[in-house]
Amino acid sequence: AFIFEIYYIYYRSMILKSFLYINLGAVHVPSYALELTLKDSGNSTCLYAKWQMDFTVYYETTNKTQKNVTISDFGTVTYNGSICGDDQNGPKIAVQFGSGFSWMVNFTKMASSHYSIHNISFSYNTSDKTIFPDAEDKGIITVLEVPEITIPLNEIFRCNSLSTLKSNNVVQHYWDVHVQAFVQNGTVSTKEFLCSKDNTSTTVAPTIHTTMPSPTTKPTPKERPETGNYLVNSTNGICLLATMGLQLNITQDKVASVINIKPNTTDITGSCQPQTALLRLNSSTIKYLEFVFAVKNENRFYLKEVNFSMYLVNGSVFSIANDNLSYWDAPLGSSYMCNKEQTVSVSGAFQINTFDLRVQPFNVMEGKYSTATAQECSLDDDTILIPIIVGAGLSGLIIVIVIAYLIGRRKSYVGYQTL
Ligand SMILES: *[C@@H]1O[C@H](CO)[C@@H](O)[C@H](O)[C@H]1NC(C)=O
Ligand SMILES: *[C@@H]1O[C@H](CO)[C@@H](O)[C@H](O)[C@H]1NC(C)=O
Ligand SMILES: *[C@@H]1O[C@H](CO)[C@@H](O)[C@H](O)[C@H]1NC(C)=O
Ligand SMILES: *[C@@H]1O[C@H](CO)[C@@H](O)[C@H](O)[C@H]1NC(C)=O
Ligand SMILES: *[C@@H]1O[C@H](CO)[C@@H](O)[C@H](O)[C@H]1NC(C)=O
Ligand SMILES: *[C@@H]1O[C@H](CO)[C@@H](O)[C@H](O)[C@H]1NC(C)=O
Ligand SMILES: *[C@@H]1O[C@H](CO)[C@@H](O)[C@H](O)[C@H]1NC(C)=O
Ligand SMILES: *[C@@H]1O[C@H](CO)[C@@H](O)[C@H](O)[C@H]1NC(C)=O
Ligand SMILES: *[C@@H]1O[C@H](CO)[C@@H](O)[C@H](O)[C@H]1NC(C)=O
Ligand SMILES: *[C@@H]1O[C@H](CO)[C@@H](O)[C@H](O)[C@H]1NC(C)=O
Ligand SMILES: *[C@@H]1O[C@H](CO)[C@@H](O)[C@H](O)[C@H]1NC(C)=O
Ligand SMILES: *[C@@H]1O[C@H](CO)[C@@H](O)[C@H](O)[C@H]1NC(C)=O
Description:
The chain has 419 residues and is mainly β. It has helices at residues 2-26, 382-418; strands at residues 33-39, 45-60, 66-71, 77-78, 92-97, 101-110, 114-125, 140-145, 149-152, 156-159, 163-166, 170-180, 192-194, 227-234, 237-252, 255-260, 267-272, 276-282, 286-296, 300-311, 317-322, 327-331, 336-338, 342-347, 350-360, 375-376. It has two domains: 3-194, Beta Barrel (Porin), CATH 2.40.160.110; 227-376, Porin (Beta Barrel). Strands 1, 2, 3, 10, 11, 12 and 13 form a seven-stranded mixed beta sheet that branches. Strands 14, 15, 16, 23, 24, 25 and 26 form a seven-stranded mixed beta sheet that branches. Strands 4, 5, 6, 7, 8 and 9 form a six-stranded antiparallel beta sheet that branches. Helix 1 runs antiparallel to helix 2 (382-418). It is globular and about 80 Å long. The relative contact order is 0.10. Keywords: Autophagy, Cell membrane, Cytoplasmic vesicle, Disulfide bond, Endosome, Glycoprotein, Lysosome, Membrane, Signal, Transmembrane, Transmembrane helix. One of its GO terms (molecular function) is ion channel inhibitor activity.
């Protein structure tokens, strides 16, 4: 019965594990950054914005039931109608996407010291049966929100946290928002004005009260990064292999921003030497991300160094390097593997989360991972750990029972004596 129990508990934990894994693997929240730099007639920047959003639309079907659809993949995006504004009209961002969606935000100048994000409108076309199947045809529907966020002039508004705007039929989510209207002298400000949710580090109340959209407990949408295959060539063919999903975690002003690296928009370079190997990635946002591998004791390799540099929204550059790391240690001639999420901590402000990792920076033959048993991370070893823990727990229980029995016997023995 004990053995059965052990296996039952082990089996249950395995089912739970695969269930959790499938659930995690299935989570997919596409993140889609929109970016716009508007220039005035003199070709200097008047407005800058970069942000992510999605929409959930609730609609009525022909038989009076409710359905909903979430729009997060925008397809082709145009910004027609976005204007710098003039004396009569304020600046405006207008976005068209998908089939028949449009989104608009306009800004107003308040006195001489502040501007506000005045109103946001979102329109959709329920006549489109591919997006709104079975919808009762109501044509174009527009929802208008008035968030009234007030920002000092010549400062860029930043809100990495998730903001939600709710109306009867539409729930709008916004995150990773950076926007500055009324840009002065064509230079986007380096001074950030944080929304209250990003600004948890400072306890001093801002002089101008900002009204943020209703808070929610939902965390910033964050998907698992796509797994990329990163190869480095040398004159003799492929000399470094890396397969991994990369997620960067950058902490600035006590706010963490998480960036997933998209493999197919990332450039790969590198080099291989007998004692060191370099993998260098870059993209439109990442100036460079370098992984330097080294050989130790002539029989093992490891990740020794990470150099990272990224362009910030305000035009400055965030750089960090650490050449005293010790991760991904494995014998030369084999590869290092870790399927679970693992964190490479480069500094307090910069971490790399890796997923489905496999690397072989040395001794690559014919462009393939070595068939020698890969070194697996300890995190992947809990398949062995679970029965050990269960077993240890049960042995502990048996010992407790035995001790209790012995104590019980002693007591009754003592009892007999007094009698
Ligand atoms: C209403 O329509 C939906 C889908 O079109 C269908 O699943 C549901 O069964 C329908 N309800 C009734 C009462 O006909
Ligand atoms: C947006 O502008 C582009 C060219 O600037 C034009 O081809 C397109 O038709 C316009 N779209 C709309 C919806 O006006
Ligand atoms: C903002 O846009 C709305 C339409 O969405 C318009 O009615 C309003 O006049 C605009 N406000 C400003 C200040 O431009
Ligand atoms: C709404 O969608 C329908 C079907 O796709 C289309 O025929 C109609 O022209 C659209 N309406 C507008 C105002 O774009
Ligand atoms: C813009 O330029 C004017 C004159 O060149 C200068 O007085 C002003 O301080 C500048 N403003 C900013 C925000 O740099
Ligand atoms: C840009 O923003 C970052 C993060 O908020 C800040 O540390 C940096 O000092 C800013 N750059 C400049 C030039 O102000
Ligand atoms: C490396 O070589 C492979 C073929 O051997 C080629 O497909 C690939 O484009 C090369 N990559 C680089 C970065 O040169
Ligand atoms: C990012 O880093 C911060 C600070 O180190 C940490 O609190 C947070 O959990 C990290 N997020 C992820 C997704 O790794
Ligand atoms: C990048 O990959 C995604 C998903 O795999 C795909 O939808 C997209 O078209 C690709 N983009 C490019 C530029 O290849
Ligand atoms: C990577 O850097 C190279 C050289 O600096 C540049 O030409 C290339 O466009 C960059 N790649 C991406 C995807 O930005
Ligand atoms: C990484 O950065 C450090 C310091 O900035 C520099 O000395 C080193 O050469 C860089 N490593 C590589 C491989 O570029
Ligand atoms: C490198 O790291 C080790 C332990 O991780 C530490 O003992 C050592 O002092 C570090 N060296 C430098 C130069 O930071």
